[in-house]
Inverse folding.
């Protein structure tokens, strides 16, 4: 069910054990070949497919496109909420849903920069709600739900990058008219050195053209395969949320 299509009386009649899916993404640069709305478009398509499959078994909120993208601000077109503001947004969204009685809240993420503040936000909410034993507050990123390489040998990358083979393939699948020429693009390595330390960075520390990975190997066929694989993984994950007994969590 889509929250935006319900009236308040219909919402009030819903079971408070219903999993609530909150999609969060971004609007930021994606190299010279993909649109700035890439993350939101891709997550929106995954959520659309999940919604078609699960229907009334989940309640889905509108996608929040404003993400934490300050590391991309050197590239025009990026719109970003600062980390602390983003934390407050997710905190308040969670508290809104708790106020209405919902107990199983899942943020489904489509942008890597949202991960750290997203996890921190639900951690903070849990501390404030520490006396409750009935809450399941989760933050998950859709591409962590599956391992695409296991089912397709021609994928060059083994992980999600940025405006990469995977993202480029998926945009080619749903909006090919928005993809510019990729034939002359070169690979930008994933590695970032400085291990075992974590370096504070901005995107231009890692890439000049704005992409990371191998977009030149993208294809429409790979895009459909990736959508199917990630959608299946998210559905499986949400079924676990639905089946949660209030205590154990066992992934099959």
């Amino acid at each position: 069910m889509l929250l935006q299509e319900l009236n308040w009386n219909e919402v009030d009649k819903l079971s408070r054990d219903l999993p609530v899916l909150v999609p969060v993404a971004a609007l930021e640069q994606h190299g010279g070949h993909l649109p700035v709305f890439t993350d939101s478009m891709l997550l929106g398509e995954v959520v659309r497919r999940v919604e078609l499959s699960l229907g009334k078994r989940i309640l889905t909120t509108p996608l929040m496109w404003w993400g934490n993208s300050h590391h991309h601000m050197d590239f025009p077109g990026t719109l970003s909420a600062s980390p602390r503001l983003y934390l407050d947004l997710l905190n308040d969204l969670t508290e809104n849903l708790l106020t209405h009685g919902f107990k199983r809240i899942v943020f489904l993420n489509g942008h890597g920069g949202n991960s750290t503040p997203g996890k921190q936000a639900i951690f903070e909410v849990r501390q404030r709600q520490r006396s409750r034993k009935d809450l399941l507050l989760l933050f998950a990123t859709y591409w962590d739900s599956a391992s695409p390489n296991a089912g397709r040998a021609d994928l060059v990358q083994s992980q999600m990058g940025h405006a990469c083979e995977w993202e480029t393939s998926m945009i080619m699948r749903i909006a090919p008219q928005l993809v510019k020429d990729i034939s002359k693009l070169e690979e930008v390595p994933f590695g970032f050195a400085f291990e075992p330390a974590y370096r504070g960075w901005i995107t231009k520390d890692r890439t000049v053209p704005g992409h990371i990975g191998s977009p030149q190997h993208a294809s429409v066929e790979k895009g459909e395969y990736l959508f199917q694989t990630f959608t299946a993984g998210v559905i499986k994950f949400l079924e676990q949320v639905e089946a949660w007994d209030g205590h154990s969590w066992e992934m099959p």
Remarks:
- The longest helix spans residues 220-243.
- Residues 6-154+226-243 form a domain with the Rossmann fold fold (CATH 3.40.50.10310).
- The chain has six helices and four strands.
- Helices lie at 8-12, 38-54, 83-99, 115-128, 165-174, 220-243.
